[in-house]
Amino acid sequence: MSEKKAEEKKDVKKEAATESMVAKEKAAKLQAYLVQEKISGIEMHKAEDAVHSHVFRSNLPLRGQDLPFMILVDDSVYTLIQIEIAARIVTAEKKPAVTSYLDGLNNEYRMLKYNSDEAGNLLLTCCIPSGVEQFDPSLIVALVNQIQGHLEAVYPDIMKHLWADGAAEKKG
Fold first, then answer.
1. pLDDT (mean) for 79-105
2. Structural domains of the chain in order of their starting residue, each with its CATH number
């Protein structure tokens, strides 16, 4: 019985080591692509768990603003791109109206998901299936560029809705 448990522990450790290699391999591929394509301004940081995920951070220039964004690569079969569109703007009072507006955007642009977090930050997230074999750094960068183009088109309307909801609250 103890042999079986020892064997199970070895399997768990081996699986954990394999998983951490997935994150490292994906991060190394993305880092190499950025260097190869001479894309600067994106810095890799180890995530809090430091073994199972890496975060690439930068800012997305948009209409005179620099929107913080991150690319999260981890042991999962996904890669996450997340952009902070506005910081601490979605108050509890604004949440219902903003959520309704964001639901409309989410229905229109199905691959992109708009939401607000507990701190009231307005976020745009794009989740891409990409295990090690399917991980394509050029696709990740192309999607960031596509998202930037998308935001160029919708950002003024988003901000109009965010500020209009605040103005209506102050008047009422």
1. 95
2. 2-171 (3.30.1460.10)
